[in-house]
Amino acid sequence: MYRISPLSKRPAAPSLLLTGAAAGLVAGGVAGQVDRWLDRFVSAEQKRRDRRVRKAPAHVLAGPYFARKLLGKKLSKTGERRARMVFNVAYGLVWGTIYGQLRTRVPRLSRWAGLPFAVPFFFACDGTMAPLLGVSPRLRKIPWQPNVKELGNHIAWTAAAEMVHRAVTRAAAHRRQPRRLFAF
Asked: At 147, phi and psi to the nearest 5?
């Protein structure tokens, strides 16, 4: 999937964009599973406190929130599910592409399964963008366990995206190796 330019030794742009988009979609699926698993570790009291400051986590509210703003009307339950799905796909495509571009330009971001990207990614999404857009309150208003769970989701998302990038890079390197007739 990656075509390597002989001059730059970097993947060609279309391959990088496609890999980034695919990595974001895969990472979204992984993060969803991790979210459900981590939810078991959030106490009932922390969940009650969380519901006092917001209806649900930002990634659950964002799709219906933006759809209501764009359409100018209330959504049905089916409409909310569709809006959530569209938002999750768009989120995966956009952030997957952003991560793919950044990890190529700043290779240190891909170390430790992308951890140097994951933590600022959490603060950018949940700490800055969600409150500024009115999707969620500021991090200080949200109880600590749900915040740690969301940080874990971002770490899982980035690790999954990084693993996709590494797998594609290995597959491309394997395809470029000359074939031997006999292996001794």
From this structure: -65, -45
Asked if the model's pLDDT at residue 1 lies above 50, the reply is no
Q: Cα angle at 115 between 112 and 121, to 5 degrees?
A: 160
Distance in angstroms (rounded) separating the CA atoms of residues 33 and 35: 5
Predicted local confidence at residue 180, as pLDDT: 64
User: In angstroms, how far is CA 21 from the centroid of its own chain?
Assistant: 10
CB 99 within 8 A of CB 23: yes
Angle between helices 144-176 and 44-53 (to 10 degrees): 90
The conformation of residue 11, written as its DSSP 8-state character, comes to B
Q: What are phi and psi of 129, to 5 degrees?
A: -65, -50
The 8-class DSSP code of residue 131 comes to H
DSSP, collapsed to helix, strand or coil, labels residue 4 as: strand
